[in-house]
Amino acid sequence: MGLILDTSALVEIERAGEGLAPKSFERETIYLPAVVWAEALIGVRLANSAGRAARRRARLEVIRQLTGIVPFSAEISEHYADIFSELHASGHLISQNDIAVAATARFLKADVLIGPSDEKHFRRVENLGVRVIGAEQ
After folding, report:
1. Which end of the chain is more exposed for a tag (fewer CB within 10 A), N or C?
2. What is the pLDDT of residues 104-116, one digit of tens each?
3. Distance (Å, whole) CA 16 – CA 2
4. In terms of pTM, does the model score above 0.85?
5. Which of 114, 94, 78, 85 is nearest to 4 (CA)?
6. What are the C-alpha distances in Å from 77 to residues 29, 102, 105?
7. What phi and psi values does residue 30 have, to the nearest 5 degrees?
């Protein structure tokens, strides 16, 4: 089993000042979707100081080196369309970037690692394993 990092998990990792992920995830394969990389880079660009931007970028580069970046492929696009359609039918759409994260996870048969504030909407996606960073695993 693997773990897809959501941007909300990256934020929690930064706040905690830890390494890539909690000890309980050391045996997991960790994936970084391209859309999460883009969102994380926005956090670098919007940092309130050059020093903070540099620290964020350095931390992200370590994560990227460890995980690589999963590109948004034609196969992931199929999952994206399915998830969008399912959520639309239920009347509970979530952000398009989060649909892309969920589609990447379903394609790779991995769970999504999220921060606590994103749990509710990711749980709307059927057949998606969701783990909250910092929660008992």
Report:
1. N
2. 999 999 999 998 8
3. 22
4. yes
5. 114
6. 22, 11, 12
7. -105, 135
Distances (CA, A) of 25 to 43, 71, 94, 133: 24, 23, 26, 10
Cβ atoms < 10 Å from Cβ of 62: 12
CB atoms within 10 A of CB 61: 10
From residue 120, how far is each of 10, 15, 56, 72 by CA, in Å?
18, 21, 27, 24
Question: What's the CA gap between 75 and 86, in Å, rounded?
Answer: 17
Q: Is residue 33 a contact partner of residue 104, using CB atoms and an 8 Å limit?
A: yes
* Domains parsed from the chain with CATH numbers: 2-132 (3.40.50.1010)
Give me the sign of the Cα torsion angle 81, 82, 83, 84.
positive
Q: Would you state the structure tokens that stand for residue 70, as one six-digit string? A: 């999963």
pLDDT given for residue 137 in this prediction: 46
Torsion of CA 55, 60, 63, 68, to 10 degrees: -150
DSSP string, 95-126: -HHHHHHHHHHHHHT-EEEE-GGGHHHHTTST
